[in-house]
Amino acid sequence: MIAPGGTLLQFACAPGSLAADGGGQDRNGLYTKHLLKQIAVPNQHIDLIFSSVGAEVYKESKGKQMPYRVSSIMIAENIYLNPIDADSKWSPSPSSKRTPAPKTCSTPSGEHKPQPTLPIPSSSANIPANARWAQNGVTVAGGKGKGNATNQLNEPCGLCVDDDQTVVIPDCKNHRIIQWKKDDTTNGQVVAGDKGQGNRLNQLNQPTDVLIDKETDSFIICDWGNGRVVQWSRQSGTTQGKILIDNITCWRLAMDEQRYLYVSDTLNNEVRRYQLGEKNGTLVAGGNGSGDGLNQLNEPTYLFVDRQQSVYVSDEQNHRVMKWNKGAREGIVVAGGQGQGNALTQLNNPNGLFVDALGTLYVADSWNNRVISWTQGDKKQGTVIVGGNDYGAGANQFKLLRGLSFDRHGNLYVVDDGNHRVQRFSIE
């Protein structure tokens, strides 16, 4: 269904299914319980409230109850259900709201930009055709339960794998960026944040993505809860970041070889490309309201940009992956798009993306607890490469997948949100 103009609708369960009643001493149904819990959190954006409700219901029901959401909200300001202190969160005044850039998909102009070494571009990952991976993962970060110690994670959202196989993770509910070296999977090192939840320049608020810009030797972080993208030097002794883009409901980031930054905006259902230092950006995908048309997106989340500057987008609530070629005014469905489900033709809340040098697309099929691949030119059916073994904590299981990536050897890394860990699956 399509939401009426200016509304956000969320149902307790997916079409054709039933919602769980409260059990034991719990008088509320499962959905209502988590809705009340999230509404009680002060200064939490409405988009995060309903995303969190959906994820928590899914996790507590062990994958059996899947809330369904549609939205047609198209604004560039905050919506809070429980505003407490306007100074404690991103709260733009009318004069500070983003002025929308012209909604065109033009080719970037300007001087030639140097081409830095970025973390594992598609052609650097050595993944042969018909590759196979170990079916049991090895924990390389976290896995010690939910917590804020340096050997723990709290709902990690994504990851970035550096050239030396260092794994950098936005540790969302700990409000920090933490990295694990290849040879030390016991404890991580906090590299940004860790000063508590807040909006000061030495703080983060539920960061959801991170990438490494080798040109400036810095992290670029999607500071979701503060509605901003920040840059944080990797040099030892760095205590705070600087704001690159403000007043944006950013969710995920990507960077191409010309150092253009791409940001998905879940509230405005669009993806924009920015030159570093630019504030408004250029529309490259979506921006035509929430919907399932080829020129629309419905909660775009994860991104991947290939060497031709084609943008791949996890169109989460449409349960599909879209490819927007450079300069295109509408996208192409390259995976899913056959409704929400667990058939090999379907996806269920797709999240992390990766495209290898052969054009094979890898998708973290989040609520199906599997990683699935689509070969170039075949959008009809995918192939499960790891997972798909029900909801659980086993070495071959997941509890709500988020990001994924590969190292240059072709080993697969997967963020397992509900198990508070990152798993590596070795290429065989």
Automatic annotation (TrEMBL):
| One of the GO BP terms on file | proteasome-mediated ubiquitin-dependent protein catabolic process
- GO molecular-function annotation terms? cysteine-type endopeptidase activity; ubiquitin protein ligase activity
- Which superkingdom, per the lineage? Eukaryota
Q: Which UniProt keywords apply?
A: Repeat
Question: What ranges does the record give for the region Disordered, renumbered to this chain?
Answer: 89-127
Can the keyword Zinc-finger be found in this entry's annotation?
no
Q: Where is the Peptidase C14 caspase domain?
A: 7-72
Where does this protein have compositionally biased stretches of type Polar residues? 90-109
Instruction: Give the InterPro entries listed for this entry.
Output: 6-blade_b-propeller_TolB-like (IPR011042), Caspase-like_dom_sf (IPR029030), NHL_repeat (IPR001258), Pept_C14_caspase (IPR011600), TRIM-NHL_E3_ligases (IPR050952)
Keyword Transmembrane helix annotated: no
Q: Where are the NHL repeats?
A: 146-183, 346-377, 391-428
Q: Pfam families of this UniProt entry?
A: NHL, Peptidase_C14
Q: Which PROSITE patterns match?
A: NHL
Q: What is this protein called?
A: Peptidase C14 caspase domain-containing protein
**Which organism was this protein described from?**
Rotaria magnacalcarata
